[in-house]
Every structure is written in C-alpha cells, then in structure tokens.
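Researcher: Please translate sequence to structure tokens.
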Amino acid sequence: MRSSKLCEIVLEATCAVILISCSAAKLPDDIKPCVAGDDKCIIENINTVLAKKYEGDESFGLSKLEPFKMDDIIISQDSTRPLAIHLALRNPLGYGVKDLTARKVKGFGKNPDGRHEIIIAAPALTLLSDYKIDGKVLILPIQGEGKSNITLVQPVIRIRIDATSRNENGNTFMDIKEFRIECKVKRMIMQFDNLFNGDKALGDNINSFLNENWQEIYAELKVPFYDAIANAMNVAAKQVFKTIPYNEIFQI
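Model: Translation complete:
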C-alpha cells in the first residue's frame, strides 16, 4: 500500500532536480548546476538533496522531506474485487526519504519535448497514518480504526514524465502532459492496530493473513495508489515547471 507514498517522495526529488539547477548564485555550496542532459550530474544532485537536504532548504525552495507529509489516501474497491474494501489513510507521514538514492535518469536534455524518467530506490519506505478500514480481504472480513504502519521493503520507483515545450517571453518552459509512476518492491509489511475494536486474537490473525498474502494485496492496490500519487505529484511538478523556465533549470 505504501507505494503510493513512496512515490510522492519521488515528486519532491523531481522538483529538487529542477530547483537545483537554477542560477549558481542561488545554489548551496554542495550543489552544482547541471548541463541539460548530464545524467551523472543530475543523479549526484538528487542524491545530495536526499541525503543532506531532507530537512528542507529555503535557499532553493525545498520543503521538509523527512518525515514526508502527504494528503489523505482513500481507496474503495467494489464487491467483485478480491479486496472489497473501503480504506482511508488519514494524516499520513512517510519515513525513509533520506535513504533514497537515484539510480538512473533519462531525458532532461536541451529540448524538454518527449519522455523523461527518474529511477529511485531505498532500503525501505514506511507510511505511518491513522486508518479506517471496512470490507473483505480475499476471503476474510476486515474492520477497524486506529494506527497503521505500511512498509515497502527495497522499493524501486520509476517516474515517467511526458512533456512538450513552450516558448514565452524568450524563455522555454516544460509543459507536463502525463505523469506516471510504477513501483517494484521486494515485500510489503502491514500492521493495523485495533482491528475488530481491539480484539487481539482476531487482529493478530488478520495482520498475519495480510502479510502472508501481501503480493495479492499489493497487486490489487497498486494501481489506485499509483494513480493517487501520480496525480498529486503531477500538480506539484507542473507548478515547478510553470514557475521556472526550463532554460533556467538546466543549462541549455
């Protein structure tokens, strides 16, 4: 489930990449401006931001990354699905962002037209939130309200951005047309406290069942999670590219 949150994290990384390469006078000493298309430089800057700037840096507009604040996540699956549930995750906070590392970058060249990709990975990403759940998981009923912990083990996140260019007042801007996210994980670990009004035996059994069948659960939830996260990231990324000309973000 947590992959959604994971991915919001990626949005901040994307924004950071962009904000990172503004004029050299505005950059922190440990971040250097990148030439457009210089994958190695972009990756180094992303990793510097994630490792050293996770508490935020107003000098280039970076908000706090650890913990990472996100909007509420609401998922509803109808009765024909293996996971026929209504799940609300309220006040979610993501942890593990500072351990993310960029592995690969494609695009972000002199011309912003086309597809751009960023691949980021971490040992683990954890989402802590208040939750409310009701419905059926595979063959078992589930109901509860309380605190939840959803952890993705060894997530690898791929961000795909399809964009076009726009010229305005002598500047080139990137207009995002589509923003997509995919996430592969080695394992997903879930813990929902206070299931069935605090019935410990039932709660322990359901939590064990969820973790034993994590692959089936992840397969059912990943698309709505991807969509929710991608939409949130898209809004933020569009604002960055709308505000800052592409030719000021990267040296072209």
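Researcher: Any highlights?
Model: The first helix runs from residue 3 to 20.
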